[in-house]
Amino acid sequence: xxxxxxxxxxxxxxxxxxxxxxxxxxxxxxxxxxxxxxxxxxxxxxxxxxxxxxxxxxxxxxxxxxxxxxxxxxxxxxxxxxxxxxxxxxxxxxxxxxxxxxxxxxxxxxxxxxxxxxxxxxxxxxxxxxxxxxxxxxxxxxxxxxxxxxxxxxxxxxxxxxxxxxxxxxxxxxxxxxxxxxxxxxxxxxxxxxxxxxxxxxxxxxxxxxxxxxxxxxxxxxxxxxxxxxxxxxxxxxxxxxxxxxxxxxxxxxxxxxxxxxxxxxxxxxxxxxxxxxxxxxxxxxxxxxxxxxxxxxxxxxxxxxxxxxxxxxxxxxxxxxxxxxxxxxxxxxxxxxxxxxxxxxxxxxxxxxxxxxxxxxxxxxxxxxxxxxxxxxxxxxxxxxxxxxxxxxxxxxxxxxxxxxxxxxxxxxxxxxxxxxxxxxxxxxxxxxxxxxxxxxxxxxxxxxxxxxxxxxxxxxxxxxxxxxxxxxxxxxxxxxxxxxxxxxxxxxxxxxxxxxxxxxxxxxxxxxxxxxxxxxxxxxxxxxxxxxxxxxxxxxxxxxxxxxxxxxxxxxxxxxxxxxxxxxxxxxxxxxxxxxxxxxxxxxxxxxxxxxxxxxxxxxxxxxxxxxxxxxxxxxxxxxxxxxxxxxxxxxxxxxxxxxxxxxxxxxxxxxxxxxxxxxxxxxxxxxxxxx
Length: 678
Prior knowledge:
Layout: H1 7-63, H2 66-77, E1 83-89, E2 95-98, E3 121-126, E4 131-141, E5 144-154, H3 155-206, H4 222-225, H5 259-267, H6 270-275, H7 279-321, E6 325-329, E7 335-338, H8 340-346, H9 350-353, H10 364-380, E8 384-392, E9 395-407, E10 413-422, H11 424-468, H12 476-501, E11 510-512, H13 514-531, E12 534-539, E13 547-549, H14 551-569, E14 573-582, E15 587-594, H15 624-634, E16 638-645, E17 663-672
Parallel strand pairs: 12-14
Antiparallel strand pairs: 1-2, 1-5, 3-4, 4-5, 6-7, 6-10, 8-9, 9-10, 11-13, 14-15, 15-17, 16-17
């Protein structure tokens, strides 16, 4: 409640309260002292009057002159309004003369007895209506007490005099309080008016208005007072600041620097002494200077924040357009920032990624290894790099990962920057190069072997066929020769495959239709496949663009793949041959899918190696897919294999692959579209 009262009211109330308390204290003390003094003075008057009457009444009392005694008593009675009664008692205590008009009160005679040994006696008596100070003085002649003088002073009259004195004191104190309150209110108004000005300025600052001027400009500016004409001085013509707050002033006595450095020298300057004021003005000066400094700091801060936002936006743009996976981690290995490529790979938003550890996004085994790498980089401050296979929302990819420590200005490691560059295509290309190198080496070997074996095998096969004519069918020799002929033909086929593998044959490149090639090959194998109850489904795309290739070799590619699909099925199955066009990549493709048992994952990477086969002895040479790979490579194409859980009855997408789940294998062969068809 007190906090709601204005400061000026608090000052006025405080001053009035102090004066009031002081006045009450003064009135109480003075009244008590005055009351005591009046009572003492009244007692002294009473004693003096009683002794006076005692001295005056001795002779008339001795002569028993009642008239003179009455005159003395009446004379004393007239000396003061506060004297209530005067009477003379004889030796026996009987009243001789008195001033009572309604009869002498009998009880009063024996109320205050005084002996010869006492000069006087005082008692406070009551009449039932008021209090009376009774003064008794003996009348003594020689050693004899002739009588007693009794004199009564009214206590009420003393109280009335005391009340009049107290009223005068209270009136004086009250007038003093009024005068002091008026003076204090004027002083408080002067002080609070300037404080209110500071309050309004503070409110403006809170509202965000820093262009305030709490104090008016000085009556005399420094350049006017000093007769200065230094127009380059920063304080020249500056009406909003005191010159001692301005840095870089050009007065000879000024010290360079801000206020804190130059204030001591400015205190002795006549401009400072003329324009500076009391503590409140100094406070207002500081307040204006603080507002100006705060405004300048805020403007600098806003400019800095604007530049920082622009740099952050530029940095964020650079990060987001970077295809590499970029992520920043704190010393506790929690993500602080990540670019769009990183979030897209893991299938999460930036808010979801922030706060996670890198290991939280990886499988458990890889997460432990990755965390050890991160800790090692943080502890040693040395970068780390490696090629890793990583699992994301879109599947598995190869990345070249570089982990770099982030240092502060003191050289301490405060974070970790991870950069992952996708090298999946490079890995595939590397594998193809290795495969091509294998094929090239084996091609050279195959060319030599085929050349050396072809002629002897032809002679052996020719003589075997001639010898068969010399023996009757069914004979033991004839059966032996048939076996020799059969295996000679197998060797002949191997040599032919080696010759094709060695690319020694001529290649005739011309525009071809994949649909036409597929139809030709299917017409050859469809009847044979039907004998094993293998259905062949055709899904040939319309308006398929032409490709450039050797018709005979491409037919061999399709025939090899179809035969492999038949061997994978055995009996009772389905083969789906589909063609399509990927306009984005400028490729035409043909895919051959079977619902056989599939290829084990551990050997998928070896199926294109020469002489690698999973067929029984005598069922295959292991060169079919190697030859197919070589032909496709010679045509600038690409062959992919996918062996997984899928359905053969689904539609194939642009990649020729399937998404439903059923055992089987899909071979997809891609060829560049003929330039004239693009």
